[in-house]
Write a structure and sequence with these properties.
The chain is an alpha+beta fold. It folds into three domains: 23-265, Neuraminidase (6 Propeller); 266-345; 357-611, Rossmann fold (3-Layer(aba) Sandwich). It is 15% helix and 33% strand. The chain is built from ten helices and 35 strands. Strands 28-29-31-30-32-33-34-35 form an eight-stranded mixed β-sheet, sandwiched between helices. A four-stranded antiparallel β-sheet has the order 4-5-6-7, with no helix packed on it. Strands 8-9-10-11 form a four-stranded antiparallel β-sheet, with no helix packed on it. Strand 32, helix 5 and strand 33 (493-497) form a beta-alpha-beta unit. Helix 4 (446-460) packs across helix 5 (476-487). It starts with 13 loop residues before the first helix and ends in a 10-residue tail after the last helix.
């Protein structure tokens, strides 16, 4: 059939997208089984734990979700005895439950835990105590017998700091602890130190590092870890008291922004082999021999969001997504080459789900990297000469990254005849430190220049209708959306999801983890206050003259509703077409199925009104 772009019949409904490809949240070998965390959108985004035997290990209403550093991570682990340990989202206490039993608390109420790790039968965690009289983070050991459930002093503290900590690792003999630590005035990708200390002493040794990640012990006195002294996060090895040397160096990143606890970019096998993620735009998975020689695991379909979750013998658990498959979890046996799909990872139908095309555009600050998802529908085409509308996607962070992968969420748009361009603007990870630092002091300038260059590049190439390009982003991506609309001249509509609107307001209201983030992105206060005012979209709302859709979670503590509401009020005062949707109970990011459905349908309806097409909301194929 021939129909205008945006009105093509599609099998992808918002209800389907809300239920498709649940987020995988860690995976472990537990005895003969494989366990993994999985979000349940139909239950408000609750994170459950499932097993390869088909059981739900953590049933409702229990929810494995940490709030440490606000973004959480590492909310569950398991022991060799098959007992699950997890942080319950409602109270942030750690619980333990034997297989088939009822959860019993291991920690008292009042503080938050995350980054759980079971080593040598001992449960390590990151504790965040934001009570005024304490206000610190610590690496702790939680007794498994329940003795600390009502006695905070029974939780053993290894190291406490007013800064931030992550990635605890016990030496094989249990005598030393390694961890990553950074100050309150730096972000971990700017500067994070590797520390080592005896578990029974306090004479910690700091290993000179730039932006350390994920230490693991090779022996009782030798460590493997990640750092980027060369401009790329690579594996490093160091003997205590010695000098670090690169291990299997590559022009790619093994590592990324430490937004959540518990990330695993590599796993070391008992026989000396290492399996690692390498990112240069897209992800690849490599096997590294003991002498540092590496080979890509070409038979794995993963190219995006890769995590090396666990290893046992010759088997490795790897989660992620790929250009031809949706999000999933795979078990790889390095000895016999067997690859088993544990969950998800369904092959995408190429007739409906476009393959991501890597794109590079010339920008005023250098090359701009992106992934293009063109309109794709086997039964529909546009009238001759009609170019498709496009949505330019801007990721959050901004120190973050997107890789090209099969996405039903994007197929929601592309199957209807709307193209999607996912931009890794300057400041993104995955292209090295120099690309990441392009944004230093230039937030609101470089990111805006880059998304504009990408959008205009698509139009100049005849791939997108220059009069129907929208921009959409959340959090820091929402900031870029609003800044680009203030700049004007490129985008005909904007969708901001819990976006930053006023830098001074953000500096005053945001949480501890990002309290000083703006100093690197913009400048220190009060010295740079005039820059904060000049850069903020709220200072120049009078320049926004295209329709805007604002979406916000009522419980967002990272970017509070006051940000979106200030823009709403300013647009309303000027009579600029806009819509504001406040989703009750949602935080920084939408998790509940009903929210995802309402948000997607509102966005499609908004673009239809703005770009002059009549979208189909029901599955028409």
């Amino acid at each position: 059939m021939t129909a205008p772009h945006g009105s093509w019949p599609s099998p992808f409904t918002a209800q389907m997208i809300a239920q498709a490809s649940p987020r995988i949240d860690g995976a472990r070998f537990v005895g003969a089984e494989i366990w993994w965390g999985e979000s349940v959108p139909a239950e408000g985004g609750r994170v459950t734990v499932r097993s390869s035997s088909g059981d739900e290990v953590l049933s409702a209403p229990w929810n494995a979700r940490s709030r440490v550093h606000e973004y959480g991570g590492g909310a569950w682990t398991a022991g060799a005895d098959g007992a699950l340990c997890f942080v319950h989202g409602a109270d942030q206490r750690v619980y333990r439950t034997p297989r088939g039993g009822e959860p019993q608390p291991l920690t008292p109420a009042g503080v938050s835990y995350g980054g759980l790790r079971m080593q040598h039968g001992r449960l390590l965690a990151v504790r965040e105590d934001l009570r005024p009289e304490q206000h610190q983070r610590a690496i702790v050991e939680i007794p498994l017998d329940g003795s600390a459930a009502d006695d905070e002093s029974a939780v053993r503290t290894f190291v406490a700091t007013s800064g931030f900590v992550a990635h605890p690792a016990l030496s094989p003999d249990g005598d030393r602890l390694a961890w990553v630590q950074w100050s309150t005035v730096r972000m971990p990708w700017e500067q994070a130190l590797l520390h080592v200390a005896p578990v029974d002493g306090d004479d910690a040794e700091a290993v000179p590092t730039h932006a350390a990640l994920q230490p693991e012990w090779l022996s009782d006195d030798e460590l493997l870890y990640l750092d980027d002294p060369s401009g790329r996060w690579n594996l490093q090895r160091v003997r205590l008291g010695g000098t670090a040397t690169p291990f299997a160096a590559a022009d790619a990143d093994t590592g990324g922004g430490l937004w959540v606890l518990g990330n695993r970019w590599y796993q070391r096998l008992d026989d000396g082999r290492t399996v690692a993620v390498r990112t240069n735009g897209a992800d690849e998975i490599v096997q590294i021999s003991a002498d540092g020689a590496s080979v890509e695991l070409l038979t794995l379909p993963i190219t995006a969001g890769a995590s090396i979750d666990d290893a046992q013998g010759s088997r490795v658990l790897i989660s992620g997504a790929g250009r031809t498959v949706g999000a999933g979890l795979w078990c790889v046996d390095l000895d016999d080459g067997t690859i088993t799909t544990v969950t998800g990872g369904a092959e995408a139908d190429a007739r409906w789900v476009p393959r991501a095309r890597p794109m590079t555009f010339d920008g005023p600050h250098g090359p701009v990297h992106a992934f293009d998802y063109p309109p794709t529908n086997p039964g529909a085409s546009a009238p001759d000469g009609e170019l498709p509308p496009y949505v330019v996607m801007v990721h959050g962070g901004p120190t973050s990254h997107v890789s090209g992968a099969a996405s039903t969420a994007y197929a929601y748009w592309t199957s209807r005849g709307i193209g999607v361009l996912d931009v890794n603007y300057g400041g993104s990870t995955g292209y090295g430190r120099a690309y990441r630092e392009r944004l230093d002091g230039q937030w609101g300038i470089v990111d805006v220049d880059d998304v504009i260059a990408a959008a205009r590049g698509m139009a100049d190439a005849g791939l997108a209708d220059p009069d129907r390009i929208a921009i959409r982003g959340g959090s820091a991506g929402g900031w870029t959306v609003l800044c680009a609309l203030v700049r004007g001249g490129t985008f005909s509509a904007g969708i901001s999801r819990y976006g930053v609107a006023d830098l001074r307001m953000l500096a005053a209201e945001t949480h501890d983890f990002e309290a000083h983030y703006l100093e690197g992105l913009v400048g220190p206060l009060p010295e740079a206050e005039s820059v904060y005012i000049e850069r903020s979209p709220l200072s120049h709302v009078d320049r926004i003259d295209v329709p805007v859709l604002l979406q916000q979670g009522s419980d967002d503590r990272v970017v509070p509703p006051s940000q979106s509401e200030a823009i709403r009020d300013a647009l309303d005062a000027r009579g600029v077409p806009h819509e504001y949707l406040l989703f009750e109970g949602e935080g920084h990011g939408f998790r509940a199925a009903e929210t995802i459905i309402a948000s997607l349908e509102a966005e499609l309806r908004f673009l239809g009104r703005t770009f002059g097409f009549q979208p189909e909301f029901t599955a028409a194929v």
